[in-house]
Amino acid sequence: MTVHDLSAQHRRYVDLAGRFKAGWTFHQFLQGLQKFFVEAEIPRYPSDFQEIHATLKSVADNLTGSEPDKVNNDLDRAARLLAQMTALLAAADARVAPPLLRQFFERVRNYDDQILAQMVRFYLLLASDEGLSGDRLDKVDFLVTKLAEETDPVSGAVLMRDRARLREIFTGFWTTFADLAPDLAWLEERRREIQEFRQELAALPDLDALAESRVIPRYRETKQVLGRYLLHPEVLAAVVETNLAIKNKVRLNYRDEEERILSESQRILEMEGKVAVDMQLDEELAVFRQKLEEYERKQRTDNVKLEDISFLRRQVEDLMPRLMRRAPSGEFGLPGSAGEATPREAGEGPTDESLAAHYREILDGLGGTDRQVAPRVVALDRQLYHLRLEAREVIAYRRVFVQPEGDASAERFLLEAAALRMKMNEEAAQITEILDETAATRDSPVFERARRTAKLADAYVQRFGQMVDQAMHGGQFAEAQQLQLLRMRLIRDYSGLWLLVNRPAAGT
Length: 508
Hints:
By secondary structure, the chain is mainly α. The chain has a two-stranded antiparallel sheet with strand order 1-2. Among the domains are: 1-96; 254-326; 345-502, no CATH class. Helices cover 72% and strands 1% of the residues. The chain has 20 helices and 2 strands.
């Protein structure tokens, strides 16, 4: 056997071993889908990877031996078995929509980069024969972006990892397509086009502008046109960077908008039963309820799209004034309307009435303190220690009630968050007292209150994230660090209450 023949056998073995590893990883992914998403309709398929593995091991043991014919036969057998298995996996993949794949990797976090890389390689092996478009391109796009991103621990923004290391990985992906001979000028034009999308995105002020610009669907169409050329290292780096810019843009603006729209949606539902409606309006309200329920289902599966909240916004903007015109005079005064100032405007109370008692306790406690004393000293004062305040919250009180400064609504929010922590700890203590070995039900009223409190805390955590982002983007790094500290304290108490509320009752 010549050296050339031996080298060819070795290259073929390495190729098949790589294909086997990618196929095995994808098989494990499908098994995980069936475990975590019982509703996922993944077809059953024979999965005898053991036989393929044994055949490849036999090849590895005999590559440098004296039986080249046996090695060739084993390689042929491994290639045939692997092709059959890959075809079965590809058929199963056709039932995995991109949102399901995204939900899996957002929910299941105990995976390493190698799993993502092998998943990409599996799709690229399929693309070598079938091309890359539609759902499969979307899935590759997501997996590569997931592989390339990391989360900033302070701001929560997603950032691109070490570019030199990523370039090595991207170059490895591109070698899958040895048959492609790209027109470099065409690729450079596409790369510049992707950069222009990122520049356009940066100029958009909010989600309304983002939706109206259709920059995301236009960008997706551009990626679909690229097909396998999306994996060219230069193009892929630009794609990932733009994907992360979109994620940060949506993250920065989405939660505030969602909270506002859902709050107004709930107001519409409350008004519906108290306002006389005609047949047409009644039908439109029925459609609105249905769409709101669909939206809440998508929330539970992390499958909300921008167009979903845009639709709700249009519905709210259409229905709210029509219901208000039919309401009895003064019964449904809108917050911020002419007349008497609301508690929020006057700075007299929190935005959520359930926080009123704890909010007032904080104001009363800080009301008698000396503003000349350092905030940290005030927070640790023996008379105030039970409030568990941070220095930044003392500063917030002074900026609202002592010497007005900055954004009053943002400063009041910090005081409300401190009140929310107190409320959560109080309810957690009440639940702990009644959760003994004989507790078999969750009938106590404190559980319902705690569930509402936990839901409120989730909204506050999201608001904190936005405030941290804004401080980072404005170069206020010290402020961002202080806000992140308050956010993490809230998350800790929120997590403790959530676990108590959702722990299975005894006997279940």
